[in-house]
Amino acid sequence: MDQYDIAVIGAGPAGSMAAKYAAKAGSKVILLEEHSCIGWPVECAGLLGEKAMQESELSRGCIAVRGMKGATVYSPGGFHLKFKADECKAWVVDRRLFDRSVALDALRCGAELRLRSSVRTVEWDGKNSILTLADGEMIQAKIVISAEGVRARLARMAGIPPSRRVLCGAQVEVPFAVDDPQLVEVHLGEAPGLFAWVIPTGENEARIGLCARDRGCDRLRAFLKKDVIRKRLLGSPISLNVGGLPLGPPDTTVADGFLAVGDAAGQVKPTSGGGVYPGLVAGKIAGRVASKAANEGDCSAGRLREYDRLWRAALGRELWIGMKANKALEKMSAAELDELVSYLASKPALLRTIEEHGDIDRPSRLMARMLLHLDWDGVRLARLLRRILI
Ligand SMILES: Cc1cc2nc3c(=O)[nH]c(=O)nc-3n(C[C@H](O)[C@H](O)[C@H](O)COP(=O)(O)OP(=O)(O)OC[C@H]3O[C@@H](n4cnc5c(N)ncnc54)[C@H](O)[C@@H]3O)c2cc1C
Fold first, then answer.
1. Range of 188's domain?
2. Distance 12 CA to ligand 1 centre (A)
3. Each residue of 57-78: pLDDT tens digit?
4. Is the CB of 248 under 6 A from ligand 1?
């Protein structure tokens, strides 16, 4: 039986980053991926903030399709607000290429990769874990990192609870008359739980999708029929992606000889549905902590709690505030969303603040700055928000 310090299950961005950092720290690492290639099937809109690009440690030129300078936010009643910065704030990437590049980096740092290696079971014997693959092969590892994505069957079997809720995502890539190829469109009120989006991938093509608490595909079909979208469609979709989006991490993300990272640990920003940035940040921490614990010969849950503590210190507050904002948005009626969007649109100073400080990876900092602009109308807005939050 092959023996490793660390076995990482799943070669998505979180798993590959964890494998890279564990290998960099000197551990013998195996990265196990059930598919025969990396980054497929795509279950993502591929919109990454500047911080996510930096965390990936990849060269932007290799993976970015185009840069985005801002957004147009639509309310259900047709009000909209637009903000456009001078520089790019986010990047549309080819997720297949992105995942492949992060995995290649892990291999360059010394991790081993096995494709078509679906892990069926993980058993902890008090010192090591035995992983059994679909073909019956067994692998021994001191620590297992589950980066299995949203389903996270093995993490659940290891006793790590599921995330608080899972949204249904659906997205098509379609020929489309884009209004402004440097602006993302956000449509509020179209998908309870999050929102619908239009992400330009060219002058005449876009990724149109949504994440909602239920019926993602039905809701997307309905959204595509709305005038604001239907009138700009230039042809049939060329791809359809569906997938789950976990929100709200569980109380613990470690067990004996085991830790969970990325979607498997509910590490997704509830304001935007972005999971790549938190997955990369937590992946690095997971790789480092797992490697240290394996070296020390203590792989107990107590020792691995360092990972839980460190990733929450890096991301916990942002995810917590994001969850509050997500719930507040979900509770708002169509009329309240109209009021919110038209109020924000009428405040040029506020829009300038969004343009200057907008950051989809750390939105709470922008929210705090926006509070500074509260005037009489703002107090009214604060009252509205308080009513929603309590
Ligand atoms: C519709 C939609 C749009 C999204 N858009 C964005 C976006 O624009 N920006 C953003 O940042 N995030 C977005 N997300 C979220 C983002 O896609 C995820 O958060 C991210 O992919 C999570 O990365 P991960 O490495 O944790 O898991 P994944 O990327 O899901 O990777 C998990 C890997 O584990 C493998 N695996 C699973 N089980 C096993 C097993 N037993 N054995 C071996 N291998 C296994 C899988 O094959 C897969 O390769 C979107 C999600 C959805 C659903």
1. 67-89+165-244
2. 6
3. 998 877 877 999 999 999 999 9
4. no
